[in-house]
Amino acid sequence: MVVFLPSRVNAEEPVCWRAAVGVVEITPQEPLWMGGYAARDKPADGKIHDLFAKVLVMEDLDGHRLVIVTTDLLGITKELRAAVETQVRQYGVEQESLLLNASHTHCGPELRSERLLRLEIDTSYAASSRKYVRWVSKRIATLVGKVVGRVEPARLFYSHARAGFAMNRRLPTENGFINSPNPDGPTDHQVPVLRMETASGDSKAILFGYACHATTLSFQQLCGDYPGFAQQFVQEDHPGCIAMFMNGCSGDQNPYPRRTLDLAKQHGRALANGVETALLTKTQKELRGPLQVAFKSVALRFAEPPTRKDLEKRAQSGNKYIRIHARGLLDELDTHGRIKTEFDRFPLQVARFGDDLILVGICGEAVVDYSLRCRHELSKGGQIAVWTAGYCNDVFGYLPSERILQEGGYEAGEAMRYTTFPGPFDTSVESRIMDGIHQLVNGLSRQ
Fold it and tell me: Does one domain contain both 70 and 163?
């Protein structure tokens, strides 16, 4: 299927933007340990398709710039973000203008070398992971430089549609919340789409999002899961156009049904159909400037850490991950005399496209409450579109809302056993993040 999209405006009108897009392959060149599932016990064995990093550069007529990097990776580590950020400064790209997002495919390489060491996996895989991060950061930074250097007059359009395969995965039971389909739980089925076309009307980039874990698949082959197939299908439908995917606030959202390659393709096609529907809507809006960008780190607090006695008991647990987590915290207590109680560098990012669109980037595996709340509180009653992406800049683990912290379960704190954090966030986490987002948006509104 090939879809032809005529320009929505007269080609003689002056353009408001300069933009360009590019892509680079980031498929590992050697077998790496795969990320995403704790039960993995061997490295990747081949691939279904290649993995990619893609770059979209947008500048308004005053030179204000936003660089969006999308990746077929489980997450963006703080090391990867720092390496790319350092390298792209030579191209005039500053911290607040650089947004990195991961599709959260669970069929990609493990980037967290310290996690491999902590889990006592062969040290050669940790070394290979560090080498891969260095290689990927250079490839991304080089691509950013190339794309920045070839921006051209362009138009940007925003629209949205829907896709329905994501479902809330937190099912309440007599024994608490379990990971299982919950058709009555909150979801965000919106498919936001940003299209970039040249001054002559040729579509060059289609950036789209969706709030759903990329966990259709769990095998040992490299694959972009449904986001990879969705991008492939959109590109097939639009020859000469680069498709890019940004994951949303999908910490508590899963694709259903799942576990087969055919289902990953099916979900990819469903999402691609949502993109096509958005592109055909008569409500597609041309974005105007100015472009404003902002970035800040906020401090989050953890709940009261466990006592030494509690940790010593957990260190004898029959659960490998509880045992390793407890021993790590005991080492921290012995070394520093205390356990950290703050996550003091939680990055938040906002880009504003005039009065047409606000893009919010949140780090971690943010649950769906954040995107729903951002849309409700920032849209001015629907006057301005709001697009919230999770998995940006530092995917450290799960980011629960106050509601989920009160409910308990995996996303609330149980998943922290796979990190070096002491335990759950305290109940101020949501208000601290939303306050930070409002501060950024309000600051841009006053400029």
Answer: yes
pTM of the full structure: 0.96
Residue found under tokens 């498709």: 243
Residue 447's pLDDT band (cuts 50, 70, 90): low
What is the 8-class DSSP label of residue 296? E
Q: Copy the structure tokens of residue 341.
A: 């109680």
Residues 438 and 312 in one domain: no
> What whole-number distance in Å separates Cα of residue 299 and Cα of residue 429?
9
- φ/ψ region of 36 (left if φ > 0, alpha if ψ in -120 to 50, else beta) reads left
Domain end among 283, 314, 336: 336
Q: Of 119-123, 231-235, 409-413, which gets the smallest average pLDDT?
A: 119-123
Q: What does the buried/exposed string (b/e) look like for 37-62 if buried means 16 or more CB atoms within 10 Å of the residue's CB?
A: eeebeebbeeebeebbbbbbbbbbee
**Binning pLDDT at 50, 70 and 90, where does residue 39 land?**
confident
Q: Which residues of 260-297 are buried (b: 16+ CB within 10 A; e: fewer)?
A: eeebbbbbbbbbbbbbbbbbeeeebbbbbbebbbbbbe
Helix (H, G, I), strand (E, B), or coil: what is residue 395?
coil
Q: Are residues 78 and 205 in the same domain?
A: yes
Instruction: Say yes or no: 229 and 290 in one domain.
Output: yes
Residues with Cβ within 8 Å of 220's Cβ and at least 6 positions away in sequence, in order, are 34, 40, 42, 43, 44, 45, 46
- How far is the C-alpha of 389 from the C-alpha of 366, rounded, in Å? 9
Domain span including residue 329: 305-336
